[in-house]
Amino acid sequence: MPDNDPKTLIEAVRHFSDLAMCRTYMVGIKWPSGTVTCPKCNGENIGLVETRSLYKCRAKDCRKQFSHKVGTM
């Protein structure tokens, strides 16, 4: 766990109250290599739909939209 991660519940609430910070943290956990991949086709040609905070696979036969929460509890 990096040094800047929250250590207490209060720190976690403050740290993750910013949705962009939360998303960045979750993306780092889900894709530690830094390369976002499609959960359907494993493609790496991924775009971001900023208005909806979703990713979109750009593979011709897929085009699936997904979030950083896909496959989590």
Provide key terms for this protein.
alpha+beta, 26% helix, 73 residues, 3 strands
Task: Draw up the topology in text.
Blueprint: H1 9-15, H2 19-30, E1 46-49, E2 54-57, E3 65-66
Antiparallel strand pairs: 1-2, 2-3
Protein architecture, described:
This protein has two helices and three strands; from the N terminus they run ααβββ. By secondary structure, it is α+β, with helices and mostly antiparallel strands. It has one domain (9-66). A hairpin with a 4-residue loop joins strand 1 and strand 2. The radius of gyration is 14 Å and the shape is elongated. The model has no long low-confidence stretch (mean pLDDT 89).
How many helical stretches?
Answer: 2
Strands ordered across the widest β-sheet: 1-2-3
Shape: elongated
Rounded mean pLDDT is 89
SSE series? HHEEE
If you compute it from the alpha carbons, what radius of gyration comes out, rounded to the nearest whole angstrom? 14 Å
Distance between the termini: 21 Å
Count of strand segments: 3
Characterize the biggest β-sheet. Answer: 3 strands, antiparallel
In the predicted model, the low-confidence regions spanning at least 5 consecutive residues are none
Task: Estimate nothing, just give the exact number of structural domains.
Answer: 1
Hey, roughly how much beta strand do the residues contain? Answer: 5-15%
